[in-house]
Amino acid sequence: AIVSKLINLLNQYDSGTGWPSFWDAADSNAVEQTVHPIYLFPDFRTREVRCKQCGSHLGHVFGDGPEPTGRRYCINGVSLDFKPDPTAPSVAAEDS
Asked: Residue 40 region, left (φ>0) first, then alpha (ψ -120 to 50), else beta?
């Protein structure tokens, strides 16, 4: 399995779809989008999102997301493995 920072939880929002949704990728160099639209969706700006390193399917990006990007990355939960950000302040440090 490829371990790469694809998504930042700070970019997550509730899209109402039931899918983990994010308004941007953490590193645009870590993901790629299909060149051709996926015509199964009525929004022709919809693209498949893949891991740039190994080509694994991660989910889709739609053109109906919130600002600042207007994109909605719906990422398959099985492709996510949440890890704490070692540079973020801990909750315990904030409470003291």
From this structure: alpha
H/E stretch holding 94 reads helix 91-95
74 is catalytic: yes
Q: In what order do the strands lie in the sheet with 72-75?
A: 12-13, 21-22, 72-75, 57-62, 47-51, 31-33
Structure pTM?
0.69
Set 6, 61, 74, 75: catalytic member: 74
Closest CA to 49 of 13, 14, 9, 20: 20
pLDDT per residue as tens digits for the range 45-91:
678 888 888 888 888 888 889 999 898 988 887 777 767 777 766 65
Report the 10 Å Cβ neighbour count for 70. Answer: 12
